[in-house]
Amino acid sequence: MRLRPSTSHWGAFSAGLDENGRLQVAAHPEDPAPSPLLGNLPSALTDPNRVAAPAIRRGWLERGPGPDPKRGHEDFVEVSWDEALDLLSAELRRVRADHGNEAIYGGSYGWASAGRFHHAQSQLHRFLNVFGGFTSSRNTYSNGTSSVVLPHIVGTANDVLRNGSSWPTIVANTELLVAFGGVPEKNVFVTPGGVTRHHTPGFLAQLADRDVEVALISPLRADLPQRLAAQWYPVRPATDTALMLALAHTLAAEGLHDRHFLDRYCTGYDAFERYLFGADDGTVKDADWASALTGISAADIVDLARRMAAHRTFITVTWSLQRIEHGEQPVWAAIALAAMLGQIGLPGGGFGHGYGSMGDSGDIGPNFQVPYLPQGINPVKQFIPVARIADMLLNPGTRYQYDGAERTYPDIRLVYWAGGNPFHHHQDLNRLREAFARPDTVVVHEPFWTATARHADIVLPTTTALEREDFGSGRRDTHLVAMHRIAEPRGQARDDYAILAGLAARLGIEERFTEGRTAREWLEHLYGTWRQRLAGKGIFVPSFEDFWEEGGFRLPNTETDRTLWAEFRADPVANRLATPSGRIEIVSETVASFGYDDCPGHPAWLEPVEWSGGERAARFPLVLIANQPHTRLHGQLDGGAVSQAAKVAGREAVRLHPDDAGPRGINDGDVVRIFNDRGACLAGAVLCMDLRPGVAQLPTGAWFDPAGSLCVHGNPNVLTADVPSSQLSQGCTGQHVLVEIERFAGEPPGVVVNRPPVISRGREM
């Protein structure tokens, strides 16, 4: 059996088919900590949920395009590729002629393949740009709130999210790591585009070997590896900002803050201090005040503040903290707190964001541009914040605020999705189902019968990365990996490029889209152009033939040690930040001028709806944390062996504290119903002590399996609220939701999402 190289978002590997046709996978030999998610790959080729042929929803085929509440409820009819592409090209022409290109939504948000050429979103956007443009999406579900607020505070989001202090710097210099949201090791195996060498687990082990003090601030003990002997502060969910403000108040009240740093490198501190001491609202944000909100004792808060001032302290905030109502506030408050300590720009001190949220945060791989497919320029300037898709579809013409501007939702008639699954990422899935009934046509490219494919009108089967050639490399990846074809395409699957080239030919834009190249010729062209560009900089890159034969190329790297904002600290005049003041804006006059009551001009405690201290908790007393799974990437390959092994009674596992399970008569392994007034889902109960009482944890990514308003498989997004973090960012708030949980009585309905929908094969193929 010959193993050929490839890569995925969770790791580089080699794979091949054995004599029985089964996929065998081996991690990259240079990977010091291969991801367990590689164990999900063997099912990708044989999953019974593969889309076998082009399929069209019966109602759309028989009645034509138009809004339809039966979308997601009807069977499909398999058709030939020619018929599918003829129908789709005619529909694209109709929508453009009758409503304009703005009526086409091509958000296509998703992860899809790690390959840089067969990156589904890039392929679709290139095609739609050539076709005349489309309404696009902006930002991400992962860190969309931070991406908007950080430029107002420190001038750019990119430095924080992509070029933060490196792990070697932290390991060597940090004395106290204060981890809001922890550093969840399960997430560090994933980076968009691929990972060849997983460095972070090794650095976490080094932190443990050095006995670095760690303060874990999270309701979940699992948010930090057990080998790190941390002091655990099981904070009440959604109250991290209150804790940060109290820590800041202690620093100010006891004179432990660095006035020199605040005066030279920051603006607005005096107004922020007035807020801490309640000069205007009458509420002093001290440790006693925060203790009542957070559940952390006042003595522990004061002690932690003093230890932070006495040590080289690194404050990190996971992305999870900004995926809530008012998610701007913990990010902003943490930066203000780090500024008060005066250690920003010093090795091992300051602020970080996303450590434990993604594999490239703090990584030592090169910051190197690899070959990619150009998307062209979108002639349509209309866009929406990515998490507002249901609002857009349900409320065309409605005005809304975004980052200081008033915008209007377009009237979308055709949704085109390739390589993503909004029925995984989005909140309040019953509302999303209603929204997906509104367009005239929904088109999906998919290898699998995901919930999004089941709610489409036209489903076109695509290949997986194992069934085509490409090259892949992630952010700060150490290698560009040659992705060889491991297996032949399943059924009638085609790659996105072939599908879109066929459409382009019918629409008269084939030459502009393909430029006369096959997929293999594109790989050679993109690689060759990249190679020539690097040769001009004196960097040797092997020929494409040698690269393909070797299976990859190690990318040059000269940077392994970096400290965020070190240059700014060294000379804040020559290296001013891209803020109006050129400094860290603890108070932003720009944000204040927007007049948003849900995001003022400085860090503030704003009470959320979905928290245990609010009125809603009287009906739904448990806080459900919907975080990332440790058994898969989002919802990808949920049918894989690793993902399936973690199911309980065939459903996603929900973790409960025994103090919450006992009064509800719930035992380990029971099927439970988790519900609120938006919907309900079934899950399998796992009782454990390592989470705060009053908190339950159900990971995202179980494939949505609706039976009415109930998801029988355990998708928490039937429960989460489809509301924005604020008017500033319009970000996702899917991390927390209030629920009640009860033991399911009787025989639970079966999971059916693990097999395809009803498909007719009566038409001529």
Automatic annotation (TrEMBL):
Residues 50-505 form the Molybdopterin oxidoreductase domain. One of its GO terms (biological process) is anaerobic respiration. Residues 622-733 form the Molybdopterin dinucleotide-binding domain. It holds the Pfam family Molydop_binding. InterPro entries: Asp_de-COase-like_dom_sf, CT_DMSOR/BSOR/TMAOR, Molybdopterin_N, MoPterin_dinucl-bd_dom, Mopterin_OxRdtase, Mopterin_OxRdtase_prok_CS, Prok_Mopterin_Oxidored. Keywords: Metal-binding, Molybdenum, Oxidoreductase, Periplasm. Its cofactor is Mo-bis(molybdopterin guanine dinucleotide). The keyword Metal-binding applies. The keyword Oxidoreductase applies. One of its GO terms (molecular function) is oxidoreductase activity. Residues 6-44 form the Molybdopterin oxidoreductase N-terminal domain. It comes from the Bacteria. GO terms for cellular component: outer membrane-bounded periplasmic space. Belongs to the prokaryotic molybdopterin-containing oxidoreductase family. This is Molybdopterin oxidoreductase. It comes from Amycolatopsis methanolica 239.
